[in-house]
Amino acid sequence: MLSRLRAGSARALGPVARFLLARGVSPDAVTIAGTLGVVLAALVLLPTGHLTAAALVIAVFALTDLVDGLMARTAGRSGPWGAFLDSTLDRFGDAAIFSGLVVYLARSGDELGAVLGLACLALGAIVPYARARAEGLGMTASVGIAERADRLFLVLLAILLVGIGLPAVVLTVVLGLLAVASAVTVVQRMATVHRQAAERAREAGA
Known about the structure:
Blueprint: H1 2-12, H2 14-22, H3 27-44, H4 51-62, H5 64-75, H6 80-107, H7 111-136, H8 148-163, H9 169-205
Helix pairs in contact: 2-5, 3-4, 3-5, 3-6, 4-8, 6-7, 7-9, 8-9
């Protein structure tokens, strides 16, 4: 379902991408602006308890993750630099969201929620690192039940629902689920790389 939503959003944002390109805006500029918007919204609105506004503003700026890709493909500028910049700045955005949540939950007295938020923050860095490290060694580790888009969608939905009046425990439960899913994803990727490494060792010894 989430992949269909992303595909539909990409089609809808096509005119936006063409509009920006026609005015000389580069995909890199959109990537940087989107990240700055996410970081500022997460670190200013979340700690102060403006959950609804934070979820909506972050969601809008997160759409730039689709726009910059569309712009790059339309302009024929897709390449390793754009992919590297996009992936690197995504980490800043994710860290800001969970850091803002940790501050908000700690201020609210929700110690469990704050701990789970920290777990999501740490595991959210390990998940992409495991894949990147595997690829750096010539292997693949793209498996897992907690891809970045899924984690972002769920945490923003939880923030929005609590912001409009649902019990705060909803956010705590979602953070717990995300932490578990992220941990499972790390284990899945480690197991995948272990199998590939073992196969290489057998082939080398054959």
